[in-house]
Amino acid sequence: MFSWLKRETKTEEVVENVLGELKKIYRSKLLPLEEHYNFHDFHSPKLEDSDFDAKPMILLVGQYSTGKTTFIRYLLERDFPGIRIGPEPTTDRFIAVMYDDKEGMIPGNALVVDPKKQFRPLEKYGNAFLNRFQCSHVPSPVLRAISIVDTPGILSGEKQRVDRGYDFTGVLEWFAERVDRIILLFDAHKLDISDEFRRSIEALRGHDDKIRIVLNKADMIDHQQLMRVYGALMWSLGKVLQTPEVARVYIGSFWDQPLRYDVNRRLFEDEEQDLFRDLQSLPRNAALRKLNDLIKRARLAKVHAYLVSELRKEMPPIFGKDSKKKELIKNLGTIYDRVCREHQVSIGDLPDIKKMQEVLANQDFTKFHSIKMPLLEVVDRMLAIDIARLMSMIPQEEMQLVSEPLVKGRYIYIGTHTYFKKPTVT
């Protein structure tokens, strides 16, 4: 089962070559620009080799008891260390489920000092978070190609007003920036979107291409109720996602128990097939995704350089620095407009103005640097020449290849491998 997640040797060689080149390009051409303009203090920490070498990751997000942990067990066909499943909020921690020959568990404080893992920047969220973070090693063939991150169930009502002790949405943002897929799970019986869930979804903005929405436990209602539940979910999502496009929702029941209502069996099988085929593409497109993320990072670094140099230019040489700083932060929208006009930058490339104002309040504007065109020209050449060269290294057939499943009875085949089997209804 799930043997389609094993990458071919040729693909692995291509990925390793591209990632090796990416590391060199980042360190020699983009990193100097980031360090000169304090990019890491405002946005994302410096990228390490482990960030480039990491396997594709899937992040599961949802309110409590929507089936996140059960979804992972369904994929792996086994339990993992630290698993807890129940109708109440059981998973109270972030669990990174990763491959290892021996089953085991690593606590958060030890995990963030491991240079082979990509979690070192998470230490900034403190012990309150690290005590709620762990890595579970499982010798599962599925995890040879991907890693999965389980998250605490998002609370509702009075429960969400109790502070978790760490920046929950900040941690979600960190993971969202680095994972390849974000799966939002909804329970067919619990479609309300709490305030904390709304904030969590808003923290995922800017990564819309990674988000997949799953309506889970759909077999617990009949076809007439399912139609109404689907409509209600789309209405709720429309208020939160705030996009004119209709979100793609996968409908099914992702566990190994018999279906309660069998009338929608064919629908569930087709939807599950589509979702697994999407996950199947992650290992094959890992290098392409990292290329895409580096391009996004380079564009943000350029915009950040323009913005910081503009703020530095506005500062007085001697007197009135504090008052001028407050004025610039208050009128940051005007600075944004000026940067867009002078440097032909899209307003959509600029960071969120409220977050930027919060970070700028703790910065010393006099330590900002003026514009340094050679650094920006190096990044422009990187995007125009080096990235284009790396794109050509990835064979088109590897980027476009999609196996066509065949459905036969209760089995779905990809090539010669069975990767899905629904139990007989009892």
Could you characterize the architecture of this molecule?
- This protein has 426 residues and is an alpha/beta fold.
- It folds into 2 domains: 15-47 and 286-412, Topoisomerase, domain 3, CATH 1.10.268; 54-262, P-loop containing nucleotide triphosphate hydrolases (Rossmann fold, 3-Layer(aba) Sandwich).
- It contains 16 helices and 11 strands.
- The strands form 2 sheets. An 8-stranded mixed sheet has the order 3-4-2-5-1-6-7-8, with helices on both faces. A 3-stranded antiparallel sheet has the order 9-10-11, with no helix packed on it.
- The chain is globular.
Feature tags:
single chain; 426 residues; alpha/beta; Topoisomerase, domain 3; Rossmann fold; 2 domains; 3-stranded antiparallel β-sheet; 16 helices; 11 strands; 47% helix; disordered C terminus
What is the total number of structural domains? 2
Q: Which fold name corresponds to the CATH topology of the largest domain?
A: Rossmann fold
Shape: globular
Determine the mean pLDDT.
82
Q: What is the CATH architecture assignment of the largest domain?
A: 3-Layer(aba) Sandwich
By CATH reckoning, the class of the largest domain would read Alpha Beta
Low-pLDDT stretches: 396-426
How large is the count of helical segments? 16
- Per DSSP, what share of the residues sits in E-state strands of 2 or more residues? 5-15%
Oligomer: single chain
Strands in their spatial order, largest beta sheet: 3-4-2-5-1-6-7-8
Largest sheet data: 8 strands, mixed
Q: What is the string of helix and strand elements?
A: HHHEHEEHHEEHEHEHEHHHHHHHEEE
Q: What portion of residues is helical?
A: 40-55%
Distance between the termini: 23 Å
Structural class: alpha/beta
Query: What's the CATH superfamily of the largest domain, by name?
Result: P-loop containing nucleotide triphosphate hydrolases
